[in-house]
Amino acid sequence: MKKGGPDRARLSAWRLALCIFMLFASLPVHASDTVSLQEFAGKLKARLSYDPLTQTGYIERDDRFVSFSVGQPYIALNWKDIRKVSPPRFEDGMLVVSADFIRESEAFLKGSPAQGKASDYAIAAILVDPGHGGKDTGAIAELDSGRLLEKDLTLEVSKRIVELLKSRYPERRILLTRDNDSYPTLEERVDMANSIGLKPEEAVIYVSVHANASFNKNAKGFEVWYLNPEYRRTVVDATTVKEKGDDIAPILNAMLEEEFTTESIILARNVYDRLSSAVGKQSPGRGIRAEEWFVVRNAKMPSILIEMGFITNPNEGELLSQSGYLRKIGDAIYNGIVDFIEYFER
């Protein structure tokens, strides 16, 4: 069960921008010496992707990527090399870029695909975190069928998720923060996630599983949470800061924060949609929401927290006491994770 913090407004719609595929177009130069980014991508027969939520995006051509952020005077080439350019900005509602942005981007995007091919990015590890455990029972409900403890439900569902993931991805690291009735602290859970060794082209995702409770016995339904995008945190490590310099490191940190937020939202949406399909007729979806829970604000990776239902609701509590129903929830979360991995690696 989540504790503390205001109830953020749920996302009203899928707010991420879809990738925009450009048609051929000429490249006009405007009076202000700026060019429409859309037209620039069109001339190069490149794909432009822009997320209005985070105001970041990238241009892709032949496995080469130029990443940018509105208002930031840097671009990243294949997420590795940093070049200083005039920042992209909006003019009359149109996203435009200056000559130096075009020069640096065009030279890189027109290079040989073999030389510029990005690394094969992959989800190398998945950490599933069963909430509570040991001395911390989490939420407790007294039902006609007996006492229900949140810590038991989260462990059963998490073990099911891990079982399925290990079967599908035997070559990946599929981890649990606990596999029995023990109590890792919140700090230990996050440290476990942040200490997973990764190669430069590898990533890890963090999935925390919980059950909900309320004084209102009528409250019911599942939720998926991600970190509030307004929360600022440090995700760039000290080595990167030293290598790139104090002036560039904050820009890289902002880009990485936004990347994690975007990916967390996509992961949350995939899991939420799968839960809706699996149990939506029995348990209403209460939305995808943003909050600053300890585990998601301290995990330096895409991360979500799932509330699989209210054990304090008499009907939903009885459902959650059934292994068959918990299995459906575990299967849905697993499928949502697979959907995200396929999206991420594609």
Low-confidence stretches: 1-31, 114-119
Biggest β-sheet: strands ordered side by side in the sheet: 1-3-4-5-6-7
Distance between the termini: 34 Å
Mean pLDDT across residues: 80
The sequence of SSEs as H and E is: EEHEEEEEEEHHEEEHEHEEHHEHEHH
Helicity, as a percent range? 25-40%
CATH fold naming of the largest domain: Aminopeptidase
The major sheet is characterized as: 6 strands, antiparallel
How does CATH name the architecture of the largest domain?
Answer: 3-Layer(aba) Sandwich
What is the level 1 CATH name of the largest domain? Alpha Beta
- Beta-strand content estimate: 25-35%
Estimated radius of gyration = 22 Å
Indicate how many domains the architecture comprises.
Answer: 2
How many individual helices? Answer: 10
Q: What structural keywords apply?
A:
single chain; 346 residues; alpha+beta; Copper Amine Oxidase, Chain A, domain 1; Aminopeptidase; 6-stranded antiparallel beta sheet; 10 helices; elongated; disordered N terminus
What do these coordinates show?
- The protein has helices at residues 37-43, 99-109, 113-116, 150-168, 186-194, 238-244, 249-279, 294-298, 314-320, 323-345, and strands at 20-21, 34-36, 47-51, 56-61, 64-69, 74-77, 81-84, 89-91, 94-98, 122-130, 140-143, 146-149, 173-176, 202-212, 222-227, 285-291, 303-310.
- The longest helix is centred in the C-terminal third of the chain and has 31 residues, at 249-279.
- The protein is an alpha+beta fold and 346 residues long.
- 36% of the residues lie in helices and 26% in strands.
- It is elongated.
- A six-stranded antiparallel beta sheet has the order 1-3-4-5-6-7, with helices on both faces. A six-stranded mixed beta sheet has the order 13-10-14-17-15-16.
- A hairpin with a 2-residue loop joins strand 11 and strand 12 (146-149).
